[in-house]
Amino acid sequence: MIGRRDLFVGAGCAAALGGAEFLRPRRTLRLLPEGEEMTGVIPGRFAAWSIGEGGDIVMPETPGSLASRLYSDRVARTYRRDAPQVDDVMLLAAYGAAQSDLLQLHRPEVCYPAVGFTIVDRRLVSLPLATGVTVPAVLLSAQAGSRTEDVAYWTRLGEAMPQTAGDQRWARLESAMAGYVGDGVLIRASMVRQGDTPGYDTLQQFLSQMVLGTAPRDRPALIGSMRATALQRA
């Protein structure tokens, strides 16, 4: 005979399976235009910035590695400004076609400590692009020995722009409840600090000018369609 407890357990399992099935994404949201790659989306020259000597940095892919599973497309470049007194800026744009519970963007707060850096400063900011148009971004400084790197970055998951790991988990849950899985991108600019003053102003200006220098049809891949539309109207 099936006892009351067994019935409760069975009902609980059925409810869990039903909930999992309800949250299973059935659609995809892709903001990177079909046939486009990040190398073509990110401009090689904008404002006073241009790619340094040597062009794109080659990032070897190891089949089955975490990076190869997380990101379907990555661009790494060093940019140099015409003004000689400004230090180079390193840009990483990492794109993933599907952001699920198993495959999700790795935030710099996790990546830097993993290679021996200590996060010594972290700030949540609204990075200005144009009047009334901002991007939720993060500024941080990471230190390893005598080397300090200043970083400015943002992440996009579908149409969401999460600033924290908690925001990122919530964005994935919302998309699952809406029945879709979105693509995602990590945009990170960094520079090695010279002296005591963080390079946050330079990094924010760099990223703002990069977005403004991106073709309007490609901007949703970087900042989402709503902000891209607002930027075009600004």
**What pattern of helices and strands is seen along the backbone?**
HEHEEHEEHEEEHEEHHH
Rg of Cα set:
20 Å
What average pLDDT do the residues reach? Answer: 81
Ranges where pLDDT stays below 50 over 5 or more residues in a row are 1-25, 62-71
Helix residue percentage? 25-40%
CA distance, first residue to last residue: 70 Å
Number of helices: 8
Shape: globular
What would you call the structural class? alpha+beta
Number of separate domains: 1
Widest beta sheet: strand line-up:
2-3-4-5-10-8-7-6
Largest sheet: 8 strands, antiparallel
Our estimate of the beta-strand percent is: 25-35%
Oligomerization state: single chain
Could you characterize what this model shows?
The strands form two sheets. An eight-stranded antiparallel beta sheet has the order 2-3-4-5-10-8-7-6. It has 234 residues and is an alpha+beta fold. Helix content is 32%, strand content 31%. The longest helix is centred in the first third of the chain and has 19 residues, at 4-22. It starts with a helix and ends with a helix. It has one domain (27-233).
